[in-house]
Amino acid sequence: MNVISVDGLSKSYGKGGTRVDALKDVSFSIKQGEFVAVVGASGSGKSTLLHMLGGLDRPTNGYVHIDGEDLYGLKEKERAVFRRRKIGFIFQSYNLIPVLNVEENIQLPLLLDHRQPDKVFVNDLIHTLGLQDRRKHLPSELSGGQQQRVAIGRALAYRPAIVLADEPTGNLDTRNGQEVIELLKLAVRQYHQTVVVITHDMNVAAEADRVLTLQDGLLISDSSSVGRSL
Amino acid sequence: MKSYGAMAGRYLKQQRRKSILTIVGILLSVALISALGTMGQALKDNVILNAKYNDGSFYFGYTESSPDLYAKLEKHILVDQLGIYRKGGEIPLQDDYSITIDKTDKDGFRLLPIHLQDGRMPTAKDEIVVEQWILDRLPGTPKLNGVAELKDTDGTTRSYRIVGVLNNQQTSQTNGSSKAYAFSDSSDIALDSGTQLLLTLKPGVDINQQIESFKKLNPSFFTNDDLLIFMGESGDSRLNSTLMIIFSTLVGLVVLSTVAVIYNAFHIAVLERIRQFGLLRTIGASPGQIRSIVFREATVLSAIGVPLGLLVGWFGLWFTLSIMTQNGMKIMTMDSFELTFHWWIMGGSFIIGFAAVYLAAWLPARKASSVSPVEAVKGAGSIVRESFRHVRTPSLLSLMGIEGRMASNNIRRNRAKFRITTFSIVISVTLFVVFHYFTQQSLTMTTTTNENDRLAFQLLSNSSIEEDGSSPQLSDVVSDNVMRQLGELPGVYRVYGNYQKLNYQVLVPDEKLNKDYVQKTGNSFERINDRNTVYSDMYLYDTARLKEAAKYLQSGTVDPMKLAEGDGVILVQTVKPMTVDDKRELMPITRYKVGDKLTVMGEYSASPTARQLREVTVAGILKQSPFESPYQENTLVVIATKPTFAKLVTADSQSVYTKAYGTARLGLDIAIEDGANSGPIKQELEQIARTIPGSRLVDIAAEQKETRNYNLQMKIFVYSFLSIIGVIGSLNIINTVQTNLLLRRKEIGLLQAVGMTMGQIRRMASAEGVWFGVIGSFWGILLGLGLSYFLYKRLNYVRGFPFDFPWEASLIACGIAMLVGLLSVQTPLRRMAKANLLEELREEA
């Protein structure tokens, strides 16, 4: 069953001579439980694609369906709620809320929805992420790797339909980077989660079930893992 | 954490210092608004009290009564107090003195301006109150509670018990006729055209609305104008709305500046976290939820700041005033002043405080909620993405070298931030200029003062002049020696000689006559020798008087030596005539300049000869008369020293009086120091008076004290008002300039990293601070001028006067704005100098 389906997606910035086509007629679909990596050179349109998948920006043309819902058919407020419930984000720079502790950061999407978090699930998540000793710590008291683990926890807390990760290992050393990838893979296995990772790092791409390659806004290849194909 | 809303509290706690600063901002603004309100109310109460003191506390009355009118009013459901007043005839006493016993009833004593010095008001028909100075001249020289036998105007002798002593009045002492009041009532006083009725309405009745219906009862209806105007109940609805417009403009300005202070505080708090709000958006927070976080913060801050502000405002004012009255400013003896608590002020300040906070939070909240999540994700590390713009015209700051050029670019680079910063300074400067203008105008409107206010005693002589001109020229009634001795008495400020006043005419050529005056008043002048004859009062000033005149000098000199050269005189050419549209307006009657020749005609003649004409030179021009009434209606005031005055005297050979009085000192005016004990001075003067036959001592010490006190109180109010406004304005500028700098902490770290020294950064930031002061002052003064002119136009309806450019206020405001701009960048810079460079660079929003 397709969780993400992208159809004829285009995005342009600027007008006339300064017009830049960041995405050109991109179409693909992703099944539930897939771990997909999107690769490409700088300026190829990776981040734009991620923003479109996450409902953060509006496409110039085309459709994005997540879990059967037309993302851009929703109103601004509905899209915010949809994002909160169906999409988990992980950023390169962690982007935690500095005034909230580890546990609260993880629970934030649920709190925004006026819902009481499922204690058992959150506990399980914190254990899985190896953060049980850091529950009450503020982000400023954590290492980079730990902060990224909290961000993963926050992305998974709502058990979203998809998790979108933008260079999640970009700020981390090799060991911490590997740990983060392992955790994302664990999420796919343990929670049957769909994960889309944008990366420069071919080692990360090698871990994915499927790799989408972008160049100048065009989807030039859609293949199973680079590693496996080698 | 139970709900996302708790994040607001977390933010406030985490940024404790900033939260406290914001609370202090709110607290001060609310304190200032409530203090302004309380002081404004106290000012109004004071003005009303003064109007009641001078003119009585009745709202309106009828100069002629009738039994029918009295009956109607007595039964009228809206009438609260109804007084009857009948003027008495003059009863002659020994030595040319007299007394008039007016009759009034219980309410009349309350409604009329009768001021007891000692004792009580009469309650029975044989009881009377008299002025203090007449006691010695009454038959049997009775004291308080003594009995005086007086022969009434109808010839019957009646005995009155003196139950109260009234304050001495200048006019009655000068005329030698004391005021006295006896008790009577409607059964005794004839209700005819010689009896006045005075009344007030019940509390809560709209006075203004009732004026017409009361007017219809009798054509002799009149209103207590000043009191009703100050109560905002004048029958003239245009006047009421004028006062309302003025009041609303001023309140509006204060509220606007408060909103600006709080807005700035919130703006920085939001701007610093704009990225976090963006992140919340990416994880699914709706714009409404972001707004609600900002509004929650606003609620918490105002719930602490507003009540504290009310407390601080009230106690701050109470404390300041009590210090003022108890310590160094004892001389002002503000014993009649009481700080009154008004719920409407507290409630109003509370509402304004909360409304201002929400209004101030609204824009930042909207901004926070509209942050694009994409921008937030992209702009890792940077606070706000700015839209830079190129500056084409080089700024004066460029002259300062690289720091100046950078400062100039920094100021102009972001239009929105530039507008916010200058807006805050503009509003502060405008506020100051407008309040300065308005308070100065209301001060001159409510307290037209000159040296006359200081006069506590007058010594008058009464020389008999023979009509046939056989009287010799009089000599000084008081010698220079006595004058000097008096001047040395403790508590005496100055002693002035009193001389005759010449009522002459000045022949003014057309080009020296103010055309505007002729046009506005419609007055015309008799033409003699192709010139206009303008009435003129000519005074002789001794050195003591000239010293006072120096305070009012507009141009030229008042130096007696210089005046003596070439027959120099001093002019007061500003008059206050009634214009054709029935309005008092200040304007010059003539347009003489220092050095101009003045042709004076002593004795009237349609074709004057050299014998009647004198030529003098204008040596000085005063803004207003230092003594007597500050402005004449249509008369030019000419002041001369003794030698010149002696020449002027000879221009009228017809009048036996002019000739006999000459330049003789006919009496004295004694001014005393504020708070001085007038008792011993009076005793001394009484002794001198006994040595001068036919002399009369006029005691106006009590009246003088009252006037001086009132004027000082008004000044205290006005200057406290202005100081508060200055504080609001400065606070606003500090807040804005600091915000502007603090937001660029990271950028300044970067500049340090590329090798800019802290000294260079300080020069750059100081140049920015001062330049913001300059730009803000420019627009602020312009706007302030516009608003002042608007207020002037409104005030002009109440009283006409020329528009003075508010130079003083503009200079003060501009100076303060630049100084505050310069000083307010220093603290954040010091903090930055101490901070770790790497931390600054690494710091995330």
List the helices and strands and how they pair.
The complex is a heterodimer of chains A (230) and B (845).
Chain A: E1 2-13, E2 20-31, E3 35-40, H1 46-53, E4 61-66, E5 69-70, H2 76-86, E6 87-90, H3 102-112, H4 119-128, H5 144-157, E7 162-166, H6 174-191, E8 194-198, H7 202-207, E9 210-215, E10 218-224, H8 226-229
Parallel strand pairs in A: 3-8, 3-9, 6-7, 7-8
Antiparallel strand pairs in A: 1-2, 1-4, 4-5, 9-10
Helix pairs in contact in A: 3-5, 4-5, 5-6
Chain B: H1 6-14, H2 16-55, E1 60-62, H3 67-75, E2 79-86, E3 90-92, E4 98-104, H4 106-111, E5 116-119, E6 127-131, E7 147-151, E8 157-166, H5 170-175, E9 177-183, E10 195-201, H6 207-215, E11 221-223, H7 225-230, H8 237-272, H9 274-282, H10 287-326, H11 343-369, H12 373-378, H13 402-413, H14 415-446, E12 455-460, H15 480-488, E13 492-498, E14 502-508, H16 515-521, E15 527-528, E16 531-540, H17 543-549, E17 553-556, H18 560-564, E18 568-572, E19 574-575, E20 587-588, E21 597-601, E22 613-622, E23 636-640, H19 642-649, H20 656-661, E24 667-672, H21 678-691, E25 696-699, H22 701-742, H23 745-753, H24 758-798, H25 807-824, H26 826-834, H27 837-842
Parallel strand pairs in B: 4-9, 6-8, 16-23, 18-22
Antiparallel strand pairs in B: 1-10, 1-11, 2-4, 2-10, 3-4, 5-8, 6-9, 7-8, 12-24, 12-25, 13-24, 14-16, 14-21, 15-16, 17-22, 18-23, 19-20, 21-22
Descriptive overview:
The complex is a heterodimer of chains A (230) and B (845). Chain A has a single domain (2-229), classed as P-loop containing nucleotide triphosphate hydrolases (Rossmann fold, 3-Layer(aba) Sandwich), CATH 3.40.50.300. Chain A has helices spanning 46-53, 76-86, 102-112, 119-128, 144-157, 174-191, 202-207, 226-229, and strands at residues 2-13, 20-31, 35-40, 61-66, 69-70, 87-90, 162-166, 194-198, 210-215, 218-224. Chain A is an alpha/beta fold. Residues 225-230 of chain A have low confidence and may be disordered. Chain B is an alpha+beta fold. Chain B is 51% helix and 16% strand. Chain B contains 27 helices and 25 strands. In chain B, the strands form four sheets. In chain B, strands 1, 2, 3, 4, 5, 6, 7, 8, 9, 10 and 11 form an eleven-stranded mixed beta sheet that branches. In chain B, strand 15 (527-528) and strand 16 (531-540) form a beta hairpin. In chain B, helix 8 (237-272) packs parallel to helix 22 (701-742), helix 13 packs across helix 24 (758-798) and helix 22 runs parallel beside helix 25. Chain B is globular. Chain A binds chain B through residues 47, 51, 54, 56-57, 76-77, 80-85, 87, 89, 91-93, 95, 97-100, 104, 107-109, 111-114, 154, 166, and chain B through 1-4, 7, 10-11, 13-14, 276, 279-289, 372-374, 377-378, 380-381, 844.
